[in-house]
Structure formats: C-alpha cells, structure tokens
Hints:
The complex is a heterodimer. Chain A is of the alpha/beta class. Chain A has helices at 6-20, 54-58, 70-82, 97-108, 111-114, 144-148, 161-173, 221-234, 253-263, 278-289, 312-318, 322-334, and strands at residues 2-5, 24-29, 63-66, 86-91, 124-129, 154-156, 178-183, 190-193, 206-209, 214-218, 240-244, 247-249, 266-269, 299-301. Chain B has 12 helices and 5 strands. In chain B, helix 1 (5-30) crosses helix 12, helix 4 (78-85) crosses helix 12 (283-306) and helix 5 runs parallel beside helix 6 (151-163). Thiamine diphosphate sits between chains B (64-66, 114-117, 144-147, 174, 176-178, 244) and A (29, 68, 70, 92, 96, 99).
Amino acid sequence: MTRMMIREAILETIRSEMRRDPTVMMLGEDIVGGMGTAGGPEAIGGIWSTSTGLWEEFGSNRIIDTPISESAIIGSAAGAALAGKRPIAELMFADFVGVCMDQIWNQIAKFRYMFGGKSKCPVVIRLVYGAGFNAAPQHSQAVYSMMTSMPGVKVVMPTTPADAKGLLTQAIRDDDPVLFFEHKALYGVKGEVPDGDYVIPFGHARQVRAGEHVTIVAMGMMVGLAEKAADQLAQDGIGCDVIDIRTTSPLDEEAILDSVEMTGRLVVVDESPPRCSVAADICAMVANKAFAALKAPPAMVTPPHTPVPFARELESAYLPSPPKIVDAVRSVLAYR
Amino acid sequence: MQLSRDELLGAYRRMATIRSFEERLHDEIAKGEIAGFTHLYCGQEAAAVGVCDHLGDDDFIVSTHRGHGHCLAKGVEVKGMMAEIYGRATGTCKGKGGSMHIADIDKGMLGANGIVGAGAPQAVGAALAAKMDGNGRIGLSFSGDGACNQGTTFEAMNMAVVTKAPVIFVFENNHYSEHTGPAYATATSTDIAGRAEAFGMKAWRANGCDYFDTYETMREVLDYVRAGNGPAAVELDTERFYGHFEGDPQRYRGPGEIDRLRAERDCLTAFRRRVTEAGLLADADLDTIEAEVARLIDEAVDEARAAPAPTPAMVLEDVYISY
Lengths: 336, 323
Ligand SMILES: Cc1ncc(C[n+]2csc(CCOP(=O)(O)OP(=O)(O)O)c2C)c(N)n1
Ligand SMILES: [Mg+2]
C-alpha cells in the first residue's frame, strides 16, 4: 500500500498503463503545458496535475497536447480507438462535453451497436466535474446523469485514491467507451492505494458504512457528505447503510436492492439536478423491484432544478450537504 | 481624422478604468476576497476601447472569459460589475454568474462566456438580426488566439460570409491560450487574420497595444461593414500582463517577460506619450482622470463589500420566465 492523493493515483495509473500497453495514448488541452512558449514544455502537467512528466517519458506521439478544439479531441480519440489504440482524452472541465457531444453521443456511444458488433472503441474520456469552487454555471456541472442516460458508454465516478486506481485501470483496459468523472474537490483526498496491478470491475458498489435503519446511496462527491451525515445520525442510534455505487452505468442494482430489503428505507444523494437524474433512476428502480420491502417513499437529496449559481451563498444553498441528508433520513424514518 | 479633446480624454478614462478595475481585482483576489475563476484583461485595454469606441448601445458584442474590459468599454456600469464579481445581489447579474458571465443586454453586451469559442456564432446571429432590421447596426465577437481554433469559430466565419452578415470577428492575439502559445497550437501561428481571408472576408491587422492604431483601423472596418459589404475580421496584436487566471504561476513565461511587456507594450503609457508629445493633452489632464478613476474603483469596492449577498431563495429564480 502507498498513501497518495486521488490526483496522484490517476497520474500513476495512466503512467503504469502506458508502460504496460504501448497502444495507450493521451490527448487534451494543456496536458503538457507550455508548448510554443518561451518557458517551454516544462511539465505543468495539465492544470489538474494529472499528466505531470508523461510527455517527458512517452513523447509527442503518445502524449498529445491539443489546441482548444474539443470536437477534434474527442473525435480523434474515437478514430484512434477504431484504428486500434487506447486513447485517454481529457476534458479539462466536464461542462465542455457540450462542445463535443456529437462525437460522444452519436459516434463513440453508437459505433459498436450500429456496426453490428464489428467494432470496438476503447476510449476513456476523463471529465473533471463538480461544484464547490464558485466556478459558476459553465464550469461546475455534474453532467454524469445526462451521460448515464446514454446507451453505449460506461460511466465511472471514483471517490477514493484506491478506487481511482482500480477503476481507471479497468477503464483503460475496458474494450468499451468509458466516461471517467473526476471531481475537482476530491483530487486532494488522500488514502491507501494497493501497489501493483489493481483492477476494480465495473458494476460493483462499495459499502462505505454498515447500518440497518436506512440505505443511503451516493456517488462521487456525495459519498463523503453521506458519510458525515451517517456519522452524525449514528450518535442518535440511527444506523445508515451507505453505498458508493462507483459506476452509474453499469449500476450495481443488487447491492442497492439487498440493502433496501434489509432497511426498507432509501435516500439517494446526487449532485446533478433532480429531473432524469441518477437519483431518480435509482428511486424508480427500487420502487419497481423492491416495492414490498419499502416502508417509506424513496427520497432524493439533490440540487434544485437550476443551473449552478456563482455566489458563495447561492452555491452552498444549491448543493446537497450533510444537514440536508440528515433531514432527509429523519423524514424517511418518520414516515408511516 | 483627429480626435477631439473630449474623445481623447474619454478614451483614456475608459482604458484607465479597465486597468484600475483589474489591478484592484488582482489585489483583492490575492486577499481571498473574491471567489471563483477570474481572468484579468490588463494589457489589452486599447483593444477593447479602440473597438468599442465606435459602437453604440444598439450594436451587439459578445465576449469571452476575459470579458471585464469588453464590458467596461461597452458601457456596462462599473459598480454593478464589481458587485457581480463579489457575488452580490446588487451585481449586474445578481451574483448568479460572476466574473465570467457578465451581460448587459441594454448596453448591447450579450454576454461574457465561459466556453471558449461559443461567442462567434452568437455574434453572427446578432448581426443577422440587425440585417433584418436594416438599421446599419452590427454584431461583433471578441475571440482569443486560442478560440480561433474552435470549430464554432470556423463555422461562424463561413456562415457570416455566405449570409453577408454585418459581423466583425475581432481576434485578440495575446500570444497565449492558457499555458500554450499560438506558435504551437495555431497552425497559422503568426497569422489569424489570414484564416478569415481564407473564408472569403476582408481582414485587417492592427497593434492592439496602441489605441490609435486600433481605433483608426476599426474606423475603416466599421465603415466597410456598416456599408453592407458583409463580414470582416481584425487581428489585434496584444499582450496580457497577468496570468491566464488569478493564481496562475506562469511558468511558461520567459525570463523578465512581464517586465519587458510592461515597459514596451503598455497601452496606457503609449497613449500618454503620444498625446502629451503632440501637445494634445497635458500630463495633468491624464493624472486627474487617473485620480478620478481610482476614487470610482474605491467606491465600487466599498459598495460591493457592503452590498447584501443573494438570498438562498434566489437560487430558484430566473431559471424560466414562467414554468
Ligand atoms: C470549450 C472550452 N475549452 C476549454 C476551456 C478552458 N479555457 C478557458 S480560457 C482558455 C484559453 C483561451 O485562450 P484565448 O482564446 O487565447 O483567450 P485568452 O485567455 O488569451 O484571453 C481555455 C483553454 C474553456 N473555457 N472552454
Ligand atoms: Mg490568448
């Protein structure tokens, strides 16, 4: 085990997969940094420090610093993948999927299906997402719900350094397109990471807290908030079964259903707006498949159906928080 | 054509206002007063002012993430902008958008933008609207050297030519897109205007650190576009004095680069030298303006600090007009 931050786990995973497999390549804006400047490519390593030193080791054929051209970045990742490579494309902010949505939505996600199973497109798109930095409506969004509604891509959201390594390794080796969502606020989170080869298969949730009174399902940044809420509720003797789903597509339905069968109560915490969200999807799934076990209507803790506002006061009112989760748990428990 | 004394004083005031606004933000951000990402316009003042001095409230501009200068030059109110950047309910956009999203439709300022390359097509649309009205008004987009590599920019230029839209594409080449230089990222690195020419429109080039060169060039461009000749492009060679965003360590700069730029390419210094050497204005005139501007910025900051924060209920407002 080695203790490191999520951003380090991501960098180390890319580095070791690139060493292991010569078909792995990466492209994105400023992932080298300093190209064409007096300072020179001096390894800024991307604005998130998730590519530091890669260009020096692997060179310009495999670490491609791009112009500001998201459609060309994702489109060329698609082409390189069809041609047999394993590209990792970085979207500096997940919000920029808006610029290149066609390449994801109509192209990458559909190749295999519409080509009758004759192609594979092993692209990893890394999307840096999430609110909490007062970065305003176009640099803060949790677009994973929208992307989860898209057949043909897998959607992954690590919340610990170990998961970042295990899930990113799986993403790079996976033969299907993977959207890998990295929360800005989680980059600095530290934890123990297994040394050597470490792969976490998709569709396997992680139990974060065990408890018998209520099931809390969360993903990404929301997991830490759910843990805080659970710790607080534990002081009042309320046991929360907290589940980090890790991947929204595929979804570990079994882990969620097993827990709800035991607790009879469900709260889902999701950073994306509520309509057609992962939270709504999970509540619907549970209502369908575990109706008899439910003792209360499933509850969602999400932002409101609005863009992400800028001002500090507005953004904190917007985001889910431990007190909001505690309230939701209490009202689900109070239901009869 | 010789500018009047009032026009010269006004131009200097507008440039000095932008400079002072941005320098002050630089200080306040360092103190942790202001949240979010802020991209300062210092160094490029002559570009925004030299362009917008030709425009009325009913001409439309679209701007970028580095938009404060464009907003101020287009007449957006200083105090409202400061309050917005401070995230106050009294801000131009009620604290909902912040630095990157200031808009003032009444001033023909259709919005700063967090998405690089998003503005150019919108300027074409505004120009097509003006063309429908037949009133001689124009649309204008400010884009950086980085934004010229977005497909949206190419699509906008082509569509402007084929629709004969009265639109002007202003490319502010400040030699950086974030941490990357156009020598690497832009295939026609020393020449962005040439791209516009390749799309079939007339293009001009000017020194964006020289108010007079920018202003005189823009006069020709505006005459051409307002006369119904279709779109045009202008590449302004300019400089940014601070980092890409506040907090950028700027390791991509060469040794002494910023000092050299400030010494050789400061548009305010150049303006002052030109008008005082020509005997058009006295140093004292310009000093007075600077003092007045400094007071205005002080007031704007004081008022922004004292202004009420938006209330949590405001999160839910303005998603729709009715729902
Ligand atoms: C679609 C999109 N891609 C990337 C970014 C991140 N980004 C913000 S500003 C910027 C550089 C823009 O360079 P340029 O157009 O030259 O404008 P300047 O910053 O020099 O004013 C980048 C890459 C963004 N905001 N939007
Ligand atoms: Mg630039």
